[in-house]
Amino acid sequence: MKKIIFIAALIFQTAYCFAQEQLSFPFQGGNDAMSQFFKDSLNVSQDIIQRKIIGTAVIKFTASQNGRISKIVVYYADDALLVQPVIDALRKTNRKWIISSAEKMHDFIIPFVFSFNPPETAGSDLQKTVYDNYHSRNPILSKDQVPLDETTLLPPVPVSYDLP
Question: What pLDDT is attached to residue 131?
Answer without folding.
Answer: 86
